[in-house]
Amino acid sequence: MKSMQEEGIRLVQEAESIFRRDVQGAWKDRDFNLVVRRAQEAVEIALKGALKIMGVDYPKVHDVAQLFTEQLRQKRKVQDMKALQRIEEISLWLAQSRTPSFYFEHEYGTEDAEKALEDSAFVLTEMKKLLNIS
């Protein structure tokens, strides 16, 4: 049976794969709603992986950023509080955009997709820095 650490690392690797394959691929295809959906998925899975790495079970919800930042502040010394705040803002925006992008209740454009692409890249990069994983 895998440890929580191993499960967490696997989730982070999956999030990176989703980002490379799906988010960047949808961007190249100009499928902007899919960029937003897959960016949300990458962020959610990355943060859930980070929680597992810290030994924390996560709830079955789409936005776990607040739990991630709370646990990180409790378990590790965090210098960059602005990064944590931005992670929370990004995760919330993407979680709120998930359903409208999925069902085309909102037509996302170039700016939204570019924001989702850049924001999800930011979360993946910062989360790895904060946890000291490569």
Write up this protein.
- With 134 residues, the chain is an all-alpha fold.
- The protein has a single domain (4-131), classed as Nucleotidyltransferases  domain 2 (Four Helix Bundle (Hemerythrin (Met), subunit A), Up-down Bundle).
- 76% of the residues lie in helices and 0% in strands.
- The two termini are 23 Å apart.
- The relative contact order is 0.19.
- The mean pLDDT is 95.
Q: Please, what is the CATH homologous superfamily? A: Nucleotidyltransferases  domain 2
Distance between the termini: 23 Å
**Regions with little confidence, pLDDT below 50 for 5+ residues:** none
Q: Helix/strand-derived class?
A: mainly alpha
- Indicate how many domains the architecture comprises: 1
Overall 3D shape? globular
User: Which second-level CATH architecture applies?
Assistant: Up-down Bundle
Helix content: over 70%
Radius of gyration: 14 Å
Order of helical and strand elements: HHHHH
Could you give a quick summary of the protein structure above?
The protein is mainly α.
Give the SSE layout.
Blueprint: H1 4-28, H2 32-53, H3 65-75, H4 81-102, H5 110-131
Helix pairs in contact: 1-2, 1-5, 2-3, 2-4, 2-5, 4-5
